[in-house]
Amino acid sequence: MDVIGIGACNLDMIAFVSKFPEAEQKINALKYIEPKVAGVALDAITQLSRLGINCGFIGKIGDDNLSKNIIKELKEDNIDTTGIITIKDTRSSFAWIMVTPNGERCHIIIPMEKGVITDIDVTMFSDYLKSSKYCHIEILQMPLYGQISAAKLCFKNNIKVSLDLDIAPRFIYEYKYATPTELEELFSYTYLLKVCKDGVQDLSSEKDYLSASKEILYKYNPKICVITLGNEGCVGAYYDDKNNIVTFKEPTFSIVKVKDTTGAGDSFQGGFIYGLLKNWSIEKSASFGNLCASLKCQNIGARSMPYLNEIKNFIKLNNLNFELY
């Protein structure tokens, strides 16, 4: 495998609404989508697989009727399912998602009770992880001891760790997913750290996002730190070959019509890792991540990521100055 993801396998049900309901309100959905498999790390792996990268995934699912579709969907996307563990007599994780006409969304997540990745799971799949070039890990809905073990294993074996901080650290501590010391340990093994906007305030004293990315890089010492900013693209910082900190800002591709932003950040990170695998510059990799995310937003659903041929056609039709080599 080129990239192996670790995280949750959710079943997403998306409802399209005219607005987000307020307290005590009852509203009808305009339409909805039947449950589809998704997950923060899994979405990024899907993007990579659709770009032609060999990918696998480590996660847990239940044995209920809906969960039977998960393996089928992953195999349809050429994602290796060696690391999928089925837990008897339980259900998979669920996520209820509301999407407004302008593409904004909110999530209600019901985690899988026995869906936590453990140290035992990491040991079971240690050789599998060692076969990869990158390990992509999420932080959203489960305790982090398994992810920390996986990141440590990869770090010791020169496998680069990509980490999506998709929840603010204050909630990580509140939900008892990890202590500040444990979170910092996970950061110390990380090559590419993507931070959600809401998480920035917990990691940096800087109000400006570009300055914050530089502070986070210096403070927690990943090789690359990137902060995604929705329709404003992304900003970030990285260490160059001389160990100097370089900052960057890459705009989004605003020529697309947004239908659903669910999974856009995951698509971004998949595109970013793709660029790193191709030995592109950090800036070009981030720009390609923005391109993947923008095209994803034209489609509905968390895993409606673009294929490489779609991206090539989009670049050609819009005369974009972007070389895919």
Name the CATH architecture. 3-Layer(aba) Sandwich
Tell me what portion of residues adopts beta-strand conformation: 15-25%
CATH class: Alpha Beta
Tally the helices: what do you get?
12
- The structure class reads alpha/beta
CATH topology: UDP-N-acetylmuramoyl-L-alanine:D-glutamate ligase
Helix amount: 25-40%
The CATH homologous superfamily is named Ribokinase
How does the major sheet shape up? 9 strands, mixed
Q: What does this 3D model show about the protein?
A:
The chain contains twelve helices and 13 strands. The chain has a single domain, classed as 3-Layer(aba) Sandwich (UDP-N-acetylmuramoyl-L-alanine:D-glutamate ligase), CATH 3.40.1190.20. The mean pLDDT is 93. Helix 10 (264-277) runs antiparallel to helix 11 (282-296). The protein has a nine-stranded mixed sheet with strand order 5-4-1-8-9-10-11-12-13, with helices on both faces. Helices cover 36% and strands 25% of the residues. The chain is of the alpha/beta class and 325 residues long.
Notable traits:
325 residues, alpha/beta, UDP-N-acetylmuramoyl-L-alanine:D-glutamate ligase, nine-stranded mixed β-sheet, 13 strands
Describe this structure in a few short sentences.
This protein has twelve helices and 13 strands.
What does the secondary structure layout of this molecule look like, with pairings?
Elements lengths: L2 E4 L3 E7 L14 E8 L1 H11 L4 E7 L6 H9 L2 E8 L6 E7 L5 E6 L8 H6 L1 H5 L3 E6 L5 H12 L3 E6 L3 H6 L5 H9 L3 E4 L1 H7 L5 H12 L3 E5 L5 E6 L5 E6 L13 H14 L4 H15 L11 H10 L8
Parallel strand pairs: 1-4, 1-8, 2-6, 4-5, 8-9, 9-10, 10-11
Antiparallel strand pairs: 2-3, 6-7, 11-12, 12-13
Helix pairs in contact: 1-10, 5-7, 10-11
